[in-house]
């Protein structure tokens, strides 16, 4: 028998088996060093480049090229990436990018993503260092926002998924039936969730995915400061109870996406407790203000939430993607997602002797997204991230002051944190025409490469919107934005 097996043995490389590893590691090393040098230059000189530029036709057609079936030298592949991809970025690492809402990344985080990919670990679970580090980052985030150490949490792809995780636990806890076993059709009274009319669209999608439907998310009017009207919320809950609904969950905003408004978290938390309703906070924008010494008071009460979504790829500037869901009751969290499959049983020793992280969310395979948060926090310390948040809020206040001092501009909403809503105003121009002028200003700022800002409509009125989640912005940049907005506005309105 043994003899037969020996006859089947083929030594090492003699079999002609293929691998993705290089034939010459030294050549790979030289190219890799060049890529790192280029990357450092790319980031160092970002200010010298336009924020954004549109792709010429020949670059667009590059993305129609056929499936490569045979090899090309890696150096040639890299050249194609440099020319066609690296040259046309979204621009959110640029000091004058303030569109929508996103962080501006950092080099250490990029190194971490590289190392994570090199190690290649799967954080679905297992007894290995990356899994422990992932849990440590969740613990640090709990501490940063004032959640108890006993709470549980999970890193996910971003805020949308983090909110979905929180709302799923809320639904399962409040449904009154075993939703996982019997489905939403078994729920006795229709569940109601509540949020202000400023709530992010991911909550609508979450309610749809949860099988409750968009109408189960009742929008409560917001006040002049774009905060949820708590009296209207209480009235809606009473009305729903009387009509036979089951009020299940209140979603409070710690920083709305339109204007940065922060709901009255303490009052809403009190009401949720009195009414025995799940208290979820969407803190994708503002949860981390808890570490900013000058502004932390604004999110007082956030640590009381039953569940909280936050987004390290926003104000911690982690490279995309990383979000985090925190759940106060760890057993409710586990009960919402755990399934022990016969092929994923834990053992007392060895590789499977650990908590399965996939039992706290929807993914099975999970990437090592924790490392980019961990390395940047270790390098800079949490206090510096807190100061950077304060800095962005102070910059938004500075921009607000510039707008107030400029007769051709007006604020469209009060500035609370780092989001400024404003518009160019032209005498005797009605709303439609004003929207066209402001949209044109926004597009020219983008196309000229000066600044990337976005627009929105708040309480029925169109405006330009600047969201400063950017550790590279200087006040000079905001001064330039105001000058250029006025110049373009005059040019467009005059023509
Ligand atoms: C960004 C954001 C989200 C969605 O988070 P993603 O990371 O983009 O998935 C949800 N809510 C608010 C308030 C946000 O600002």
Automatic annotation (TrEMBL):
Which cofactors?
A: pyridoxal 5'-phosphate
UniProt xrefs under Pfam families: Pyridoxal_deC
List keywords of the entry alphabetically.
Decarboxylase, Lyase, Pyridoxal phosphate
Q: State the similarity comment.
A: Belongs to the group II decarboxylase family.
PANTHER family annotated for this entry? GROUP II PYRIDOXAL-5-PHOSPHATE DECARBOXYLASE, MIP05841P
Designated name of the protein:
Amino acid decarboxylase
Taxon lineage: Bacteria, Pseudomonadati, Pseudomonadota, Alphaproteobacteria, Hyphomicrobiales
């Amino acid at each position: 028998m043994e003899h037969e097996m020996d006859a089947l043995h083929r030594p090492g490389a003699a079999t002609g088996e293929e691998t993705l590893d290089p034939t010459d590691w030294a050549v790979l090393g030289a190219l890799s060093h060049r890529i790192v040098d280029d990357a450092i230059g790319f980031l160092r000189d970002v200010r010298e480049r336009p924020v954004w530029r549109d792709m010429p036709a020949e670059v667009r057609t590059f993305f129609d090229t056929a499936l490569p079936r045979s090899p090309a030298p890696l150096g040639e592949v890299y050249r194609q990436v440099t020319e066609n991809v690296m040259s046309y970025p979204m621009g959110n690492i640029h000091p004058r990018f303030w569109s929508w809402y996103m962080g501006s990344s950092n080099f250490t985080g990029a190194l971490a993503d590289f190392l994570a990919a090199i190690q290649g670990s799967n954080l679905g679970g297992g007894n290995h260092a990356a899994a422990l580090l992932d849990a440590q980052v969740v613990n640090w985030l709990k501490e940063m926002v004032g959640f108890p150490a006993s709470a549980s949490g999970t890193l996910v792809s971003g805020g949308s998924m983090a909110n979905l995780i929180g709302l799923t636990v809320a639904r399962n806890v409040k449904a009154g039936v075993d939703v996982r076993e019997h489905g939403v059709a078994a729920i006795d009274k229709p569940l109601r969730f509540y949020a202000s009319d400023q709530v992010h669209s991911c909550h609508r999608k979450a309610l749809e995915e949860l099988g409750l439907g968009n109408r189960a998310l009742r929008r409560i009017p917001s006040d002049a400061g774009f905060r949820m009207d708590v009296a209207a919320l209480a009235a809606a809950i009473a009305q729903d109870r009387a009509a036979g609904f089951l009020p299940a969950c209140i979603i409070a905003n710690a920083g709305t996406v339109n204007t940065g408004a922060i709901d009255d978290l303490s009052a809403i938390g009190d009401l949720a407790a009195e009414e025995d309703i799940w208290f979820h906070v969407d803190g994708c924008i503002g949860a981390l203000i808890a570490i900013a010494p000058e502004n932390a008071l604004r999110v007082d009460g956030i640590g009381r939430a039953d569940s909280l979504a936050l987004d390290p790829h926003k104000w911690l500037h982690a490279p995309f993607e990383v979000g985090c869901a925190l759940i106060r009751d760890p057993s409710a969290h586990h009960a919402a997602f755990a399934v022990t499959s016969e092929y994923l049983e834990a053992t007392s020793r060895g590789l499977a002797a650990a908590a399965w992280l996939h039992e706290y969310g929807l993914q099975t395979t999970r990437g090592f997204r924790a490392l980019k948060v961990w390395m940047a926090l270790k390098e800079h310390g949490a206090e510096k991230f807190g100061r950077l948040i304060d800095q962005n809020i102070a910059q938004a206040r500075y921009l607000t002051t510039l707008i107030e001092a400029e007769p051709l501009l007006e604020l469209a909403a009060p500035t609370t944190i780092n989001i400024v809503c404003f518009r160019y105003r032209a005498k005797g121009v009605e709303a439609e025409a004003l929207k066209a002028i402001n949209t044109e200003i926004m597009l020219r700022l983008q196309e000229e490469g000066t600044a990337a800002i976005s627009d929105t409509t708040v309480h029925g009125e169109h405006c330009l919107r600047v969201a400063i989640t950017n550790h590279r912005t200087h006040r000079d940049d905001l001064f330039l934005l105001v000058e250029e907005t006025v110049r373009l506005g005059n040019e467009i309105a005059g023509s």
